[in-house]
């Protein structure tokens, strides 16, 4: 390709992105405005990142954000699911970024297998750029998959199962739910919130965050209700919802990559396994690799890429929680998950 042809193409790509950004800003303003009156009637609580959280259909949501109570409402009103879609559902800080990377890498492995993945998007881009949230899809003029012939469409969401739009529930599509030890979710959320909070609000105190979390107040929390909402349905429909835990996935990632690939309908062939394709995906999506790739830059919404990569371990809570705090969370978890087979 000549230099001038490259310039024309890259210029038209940049113009398209700027156009889409402008459209998104306008659409965001329209959506926020549309639901303003409804939001004003909702119960509210103190927020972690934003000033307040709003209770909608039993769960706490941020407002006037890309992932917010307004975008949940807009998803209900406008989102059209397809039976071939795949949805990844998580409570924030449960391993969303990791799961997005793994599923994107598994489903698209044949597109990038040449030269050992050397042109793979995950080698230079945040997993959040590769696999969109349905909550942010409602802002777009050009839907992410409009001109993409590849099936299935891959989406993520933080919406609790009981608040998913009918379109998804009726579509019969497959979902993967990833949960994580509540104590690690809490500590991860605490650090994330303090990175993103408006400086004028000052840092959130650990004790204050703990009290909110224990009361169930966190974005798309209560933690326990979110997990239960998917867990119960996964028991009834195990072929439709695969319920995984971050903690187990850390212990044996390769086995989980194979489980995911079978569930999603992209099983590894014997030849692939012999060639080490599973291990290659584990490595590509590892904390070590992704955190290196995402040291700099921001997502389109301005969140620094590195905010999604902190420790990436199981049990970091023990470096932060007092034994009394740990006991309180254990007790709540035992009560809330009583009779369910969820353990960490
Ligand atoms: P999100 O819901 O806002 O997208 P999410 O990706 O669920 O966030 O959570 C980030 C957590 O996943 C961080 O945990 P920590 O604060 O306890 O460290 C982050 O480090 C961890 N994480 C990100 N990528 C990976 C990965 N590839 N492997 C394991 N953990 C990861």
Characterise this structure.
The protein is of the alpha/beta class. It has a single domain, classed as 3-Layer(aba) Sandwich (Rossmann fold). The protein contains 17 helices and seven strands. It has helices spanning 3-34, 36-40, 69-78, 96-107, 109-112, 127-130, 134-137, 166-171, 182-196, 206-214, 223-236, 246-251, 253-264, 270-275, 277-284, 287-293, 323-336; strands spanning 44-46, 52-56, 59-61, 86-90, 154-157, 174-179, 241-245. It has a four-stranded parallel beta sheet, with helices on both faces. The longest helix has 32 residues, at 3-34. The N and C termini lie far apart (54 Å). The relative contact order is 0.14. Mean pLDDT is 93; it is low at 1-6.
Number of structural units classed as domains: 1
Number of strands: 7
Helix content: 40-55%
Coarse morphology: globular
CATH topology: Rossmann fold
Q: Identify the CATH homologous superfamily.
A: P-loop containing nucleotide triphosphate hydrolases
What separation lies between the terminal Cα atoms? Answer: 54 Å
H/E element order: HHEEEHEHHHHEHEHHHEHHHHHH
Largest sheet: 4 strands, parallel
Task: Kindly summarize this structure in a few lines.
With 344 residues, the chain is α/β, with parallel strands linked by helices. The chain has helices at residues 3-34, 36-40, 69-78, 96-107, 109-112, 127-130, 134-137, 166-171, 182-196, 206-214, 223-236, 246-251, 253-264, 270-275, 277-284, 287-293, 323-336, and strands at residues 44-46, 52-56, 59-61, 86-90, 154-157, 174-179, 241-245. It has one domain (83-336): Rossmann fold (3-Layer(aba) Sandwich).
């Amino acid at each position: 390709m000549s230099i001038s042809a490259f310039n024309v193409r890259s210029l038209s790509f940049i113009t398209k992105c700027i156009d889409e950004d402008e459209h998104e800003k306008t659409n965001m303003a329209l959506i926020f405005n549309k639901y303003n009156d409804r939001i004003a009637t909702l119960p509210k609580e103190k927020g972690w990142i934003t000033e307040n959280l709003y209770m909608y259909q039993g769960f706490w949501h941020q407002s006037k954000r890309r992932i917010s109570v307004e975008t949940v409402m807009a998803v209900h009103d406008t989102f059209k699911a397809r039976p071939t879609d795949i949805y990844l559902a998580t409570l924030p800080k449960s391993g969303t970024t990791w799961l997005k990377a793994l599923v994107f890498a598994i489903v698209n492995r044949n597109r990038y297998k040449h030269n050992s993945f050397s042109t793979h998007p995950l080698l230079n881009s945040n997993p959040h750029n590769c696999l969109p949230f349905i909550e942010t899809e409602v802002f777009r003029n050009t839907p992410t998959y409009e001109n993409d012939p590849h099936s299935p469409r891959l989406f993520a969401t933080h919406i609790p199962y009981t608040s998913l739009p009918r379109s998804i529930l009726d579509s019969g599509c497959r979902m993967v739910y990833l949960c994580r030890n509540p104590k690690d979710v809490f500590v991860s959320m605490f650090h994330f919130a303090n990175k993103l909070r408006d400086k004028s609000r000052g840092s959130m105190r650990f004790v204050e965050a703990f009290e909110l979390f224990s009361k169930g107040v966190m974005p798309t929390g209560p933690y326990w209700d979110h997990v239960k909402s998917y867990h119960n349905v996964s028991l009834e429909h195990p072929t439709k919802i695969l319920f995984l835990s971050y903690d187990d996935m850390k212990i044996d990632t390769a086995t989980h990559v194979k489980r995911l690939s079978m569930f999603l309908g992209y099983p590894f062939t014997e030849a692939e396994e012999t060639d080490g394709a599973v291990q290659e995906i584990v490595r590509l999506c590892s904390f070590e690799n992704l955190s290196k790739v995402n040291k700099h830059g921001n997502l389109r919404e301005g969140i620094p890429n590195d905010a999604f990569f902190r420790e990436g371990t199981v049990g970091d809570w023990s470096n932060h929680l007092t034994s009394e705090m740990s006991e309180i969370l254990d007790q709540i978890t035992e009560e809330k998950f009583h009779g369910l087979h969820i353990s960490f």
